[in-house]
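Please check this today:
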Amino acid sequence: MTPLGIIAGGGPLPGQVAAAAQAAGRPVFIAALQGFAEPAVVSPYPHEFFRLDAIGAIRQALRAQNCSELVIIGPVKRPSFLSLRPDAEGLKLLAKVGRAIFAGDDGLMAAVVRVLEEDGFRLLGAHEIMQDMLGPPGLLTRVAPDAAALADVRRGVEVLQLIGGADIGQACVVQQGIVLAVEAVEGTDAMLARIPSLARPGPPGVLVKFAKPGQERRADLPTLGPASVAHAYAAGLQGVAFEAGNTLLAEREAMIAAADAAGMFLLGV
């Protein structure tokens, strides 16, 4: 098998994908994005660090390693357009992507996937390498949501269908039927940091995370992990609901253990 190319952002998932590929007998090469990929995560595997806008250097390295299939995995904060210093290949990519640069994250990722495929690469979703990474339907924890919490989950799904359709965000927090916050460019963790100042007296709220309608599933699927549980607990929430089959669960067992220890629920919807 040809080596699997992994374009790595932050968090543990790039290392988990690399480990799964190697366990299946496939070599890997990680193009680690400076300022996002964690050295401790990528260091066990063949890798090289690149600036986010060094498109030509990344492409050249992937081809030198004979990578024809790629996985893009791990969060990357979108930089300001004015801060970019693209190389010659990067300028060509920006020209091909066009107006999608100024669209939401899903619109941009879909355009990047299209351009990479036109360049001869085949994009895979992380779930195609780690088939057990997608969150299943049903309750994963000892604690179950009550009727009020389930009503908040349903309200959150309705909200996410609306804002997701506009390519805005993948998460929201609902308490007692009231939408306390929706995710935008700041990301889920930053959204959760606002919740203690917004919460109302009474039953605590829930975090709901769903893919955007029509989202490119090979890049930027919703992702949850133990840190997500910790942030939700710090925000005073009683549980987390996610879209089953469309949400990546990083370190699933550790995530479930953290939720059980905190007395929170995890629910695949």
Remarks:
- The first helix runs from residue 13 to 23.
- The CA atoms of residues 169 and 184 lie 5 Å apart.
